[in-house]
């Protein structure tokens, strides 16, 4: 879907270049930017700074545990800690990128966050399942139940993102129709 939307945007830009005035092109560019790029508010800046910091701290703690723990640490536990360090570093880099730009791109940034959340949760559920199988007991069932709840939550996040993207595509197409109507009106003058 992203490729179709990108091609549609490219076609709109090409159409704008050939059939519209500079003022109309600029107005359309501003409308598209307002639709897709949202500047961060102070609470959003604080939230992204918290995510960046928490990701970095979590990655550091997990990486230090991998390095400092003795060789008797089970390989699966070591793998989970390394995976958690990678997760933390990824979230930290993502949040730092958003903070550096000072804005959230509704397609790119939110899409990356939704895919990361679902992917990380899916991998975590698999690892928790492997850990639960390696040490069966009453806690194993609880671990599996909690991880399943996390997976459902991550799936809901992905679905909400898909709905938002469909809404954005609809708005983008409405802007394209408005542009065409304005073009025809200008051509008729």
Summarize the structure.
By secondary structure, the protein is mainly alpha-helical.
Task: Tell me about this structure.
There is one protein chain. This protein is mainly alpha-helical and 189 residues long. It contains six helices and two strands; from the N terminus they run H-H-E-H-H-E-H-H. It has helices at 2-19, 22-36, 42-68, 75-101, 108-134, 138-188, and strands at 37-39, 103-105. Helix 1 runs parallel beside helix 6 (138-188), helix 2 packs antiparallel against helix 6 (138-188) and helix 5 (108-134) packs antiparallel against helix 6. It comes from Nannocystis bainbridge. The chain crosses the membrane at residues 46-67, 79-100, 112-134, 140-163. This is Transmembrane protein. Keywords: Membrane, Transmembrane, Transmembrane helix.
Topology:
Elements: H1 2-19, H2 22-36, E1 37-39, H3 42-68, H4 75-101, E2 103-105, H5 108-134, H6 138-188
Antiparallel strand pairs: 1-2
Q: In which order are the strands of the major sheet placed?
A: 1-2
Strand proportion? under 5%
Low-confidence stretches: none
| Helix-strand makeup class | mainly alpha
The helix content, as a percent range, equals over 70%
Distance between the termini: 37 Å
**Biggest sheet, in brief?**
2 strands, antiparallel
Order of helices and strands: HHEHHEHH
Query: Radius of gyration from the CA trace?
Result: 23 Å
List keywords for this structure.
189 residues, mainly alpha, two-stranded antiparallel ribbon, 6 helices, 87% helix
């Amino acid at each position: 879907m992203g490729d179709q939307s990108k091609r549609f945007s490219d076609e709109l830009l090409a159409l704008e270049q050939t059939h519209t005035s500079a003022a109309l092109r600029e107005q359309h560019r501003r409308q598209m930017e307002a639709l897709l790029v949202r500047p961060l508010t102070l609470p959003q800046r604080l939230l992204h700074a918290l995510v960046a910091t928490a990701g970095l701290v979590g990655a550091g703690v997990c990486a230090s545990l991998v390095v400092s723990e003795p060789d008797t640490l089970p390989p699966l536990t070591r793998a989970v800690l390394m995976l958690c360090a990678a997760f933390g570093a990824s979230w930290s880099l993502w949040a730092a990128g958003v903070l550096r730009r000072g804005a959230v791109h509704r397609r790119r940034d939110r899409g990356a966050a939704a895919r990361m959340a679902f992917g990380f949760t899916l991998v975590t559920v698999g690892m928790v399942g492997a850990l639960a199988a390696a040490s069966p007991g009453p806690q194993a069932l609880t671990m599996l139940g909690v991880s399943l709840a996390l997976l459902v939550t991550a799936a809901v996040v992905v679905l909400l993102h898909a709905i938002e993207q469909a809404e954005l595509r609809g708005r983008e197409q409405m802007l394209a129709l408005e542009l065409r109507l304005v073009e025809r009106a200008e051509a008729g003058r």
